[in-house]
Amino acid sequence: MRFAKTILPFLAAVLAAGCNNAAVEPVPPILWGGEMHNSNASSPASIDASLDVAKALGFNAVLAPVSWEQTEPEPGKFDFSLVDHLLKAASDRDLYLGLLWFGTWKNGESSYPPLWIKEDTQTYFRALDENGKPTTTISPFCEEAREADAKVFAALMAHLKTADFTRRVQAVQVENECGVFLQRDCCPAADKAWREGGWKSQTDSLAPQRFMAQAYARYIDAVAEAGKAQYDIPMFTNAWLTPPGKPYGKFPNGGPREPVLDIWKTYAPHLDWLSPDIYSSRLKSLCKIYSDGQPLFIPETYCQIGRLWYAIGEAGARGAFCFGYEEYYNDPYFTAESRVLAEMMPTLCAGHPMHGFIRIDKREDPDGEDTLAFDGYTFNVHYIDGEKYTHGAIVQTGPDEFIVAGVGAWIDWGENCKIAYCEELRDGQVIQVLNGDETAHHNMLYLRGRLCLEDYTSPDGTVIPAPEYGLSSQRRFRSDAQARFKVSGIYRIKLYRYE
Fold first, then answer.
1. Cα separation of 440 and 474, whole Å?
2. Extended strands (E) in 280-325
């Protein structure tokens, strides 16, 4: 498996080669944004509406499903009209894409194959439980289903190679959260593989997971191999993650979860990486696990932009996406934080040393702070109890110069270190030069964030105009300050040491 490969070599090749004489815009080295809701790529109207939201939020990329049932409604008859519309709509809005192939499996079920596959349960047989009862999941041991899936996926990739002349698509996810909600598949083909593969004699409690992981990895690798033969761009698959020890039946068994990553890396060599869908407080540890020896690419997480700040700034994610972003189009925190992250992306993509930070819960941050080391400086990030959101990123742009973005925390550097200057930025312009109370006399940086202020009309009818920002470091521990609406601010600072 080419886990050391990142998205960047493919991007460089695309930029060098071009396609159909069309101009190809430079692709940012970090892709970020949202994953569409499952059905929002099923019609031109819903595609347009979803991408309009993404563009307004400042995203540079969107992950969008392509379903087998709409691509091959009849055997051998392919319909790529929705794909073509998606490509043009994304190009018109200057958005990049990751395609999610909803083929044989989606979330441990076989709900997206076409009807002619679903109805023929003899040819395209299902996984069975230990009592012989069929599930709604096509068995990964079904060679006919694998061949049919590989055929349509190869056709999709061949079409994409010629149709995507502005190179919108930067990666393709093969299937979605595969697995079966059983200890293992007990269909006749699976039972035969269980016996002949020596799995039956194993006493390891993880043997059923490893057995199913091997089967799914082989199946998906065959589909990916067929697609890459037509168009060799980055491909991956994703995992439905659950806490360790969760009983069988509560998660789709067989996907690239933590205990079986080695199996997937062995039996799916045509995938470029394995992705985690992170709906967990274990963001930090999962980022570390899934960035070990491969690019970190998070196709799904909560619509909490702080998670993206951490994944990109600290874990070096090449891609990070919030699932179902359309649903949050009018959420003030989500929309405002998205725009701030968009404002910071040129700095995050510039290749400077950087760190990200986030406070999710006390289990991962029991002491309420993080210590982040840069060349010559140590940033002590102190999380403020009571703040709704606490996250951000720090980028070192020079020997003593940094861009810091975030909210809900304050930072110091220990003894004999102070701020030489601190500028609050918005859209690249200096809004305020902070000193005095706002920086505790240059001893700390308070990430007070951007306040959402409106003009005030007093009881006598006098209109008092809102100031730019009005939350000083002295108020950082007051409950009324913590309750105020604010999102990440951006600060440019220079530090110096003294004896």
1. 8
2. 297-298, 300-301, 319-323
Question: CA nearest 371: which of 407, 404, 412?
Answer: 412
pLDDT top residue among 445 and 498 = 445
In tens, the pLDDT along 13-58 reads 444 444 444 555 678 899 999 999 999 999 999 999 999 999 999 9
Query: Percent of the chain at pLDDT above 90?
Result: 80
Do 127 and 172 contact (CB within 8 A), yes or no? Answer: no
Segment (H or E) for 284: helix 283-290
Burial 121-151 (b: 16+ CB within 10 A, else e): eeebbbbbbeeeeebebbbbbbeebbebbbb
Render 48-73 in DSSP notation, one character per residue: HHHHHHHHHHT-SEEEEEEEHHHH-S
State if pTM tops 0.70.
yes
Question: What is the C-alpha separation between 376 and 226, in angstroms, rounded?
Answer: 50
Residue length of the chain: 499
Q: What is the mean pLDDT of the chain?
A: 92
Domain ranges for the chain: 7-350, 357-497
Helix (H) or strand (E) holding 418: strand 417-426
pLDDT tens for 14-23 read 444 444 445 5
pLDDT of residue 481: 77
CATH-assigned architecture of domain 357-497? Sandwich (2.60)
Q: Report helix, strand or coil for 106.
A: strand
Rg for the chain, CA atoms, rounded? 25
Collect all residues with Cβ–Cβ distance below 8 Å to 184 and sequence separation of at least 6.
Answer: 190, 194, 208, 211, 212, 253
| CATH number for the domain whose boundaries are 7-350 | 3.20.20.80
Determine which helix (DSSP H) or strand (DSSP E) holds 35, and give its type and residue range: strand 31-35
Among 396, 380, 198, smallest CA distance to 313 is for 396
So what's the pLDDT on residue 367? Answer: 54
